[in-house]
Amino acid sequence: VEALRLAGAREAPARESTDVCLPPFETVARMPALRGNGADLLIDGQAGFGAIFSAIDAAEDYILAQFYILRDDDLGRAFADRL
């Protein structure tokens, strides 16, 4: 609830600025879609983890990472090394 209040105070809803059907995403996130955010469809692991690593490297305040499995292999260690 607090996050919704703060988000609403900073950015107006993004509904009029997109042709994407936002309600399903908002339902899953339990947050409204706001201007200034974006999404990229990443179709393979190399592109996906490249984007994740770039985002981690650019993080300023915190990192929220949720994974089902993170293996102790080269990719998993590269991820852990960035934290």
List its salient traits.
83 residues; mainly alpha; 47% helix; 0% strand
Question: How would you sum up this structure, described in words?
Answer:
It contains 4 helices and no strands. The mean pLDDT is 80. The chain is globular. It starts with a helix and ends with a helix. It is an all-alpha fold. The chain has 2 domains: 1-39, no CATH class; 45-82, no CATH class. Helix content is 47%, strand content 0%. It has helices spanning 2-10, 23-29, 45-58, 74-82. The relative contact order is 0.12.
Residue share in helix? 40-55%
Element string (H = helix, E = strand): HHHH
Uncertain ranges = none
Span between N and C termini? Answer: 28 Å
Beta-strand content bin: under 5%
Number of domains: 2
Structural class, by secondary structure, is mainly alpha
How many beta strands in the DSSP annotation?
A: 0
Number of helices: 4
Q: What average pLDDT do the residues reach?
A: 80
The main β sheet shows up as: none
Estimated radius of gyration: 16 Å
Give the overall shape: globular
Give the topology.
Blueprint (H helix, E strand, L loop, with lengths): L1 H9 L12 H7 L15 H14 L15 H9 L1
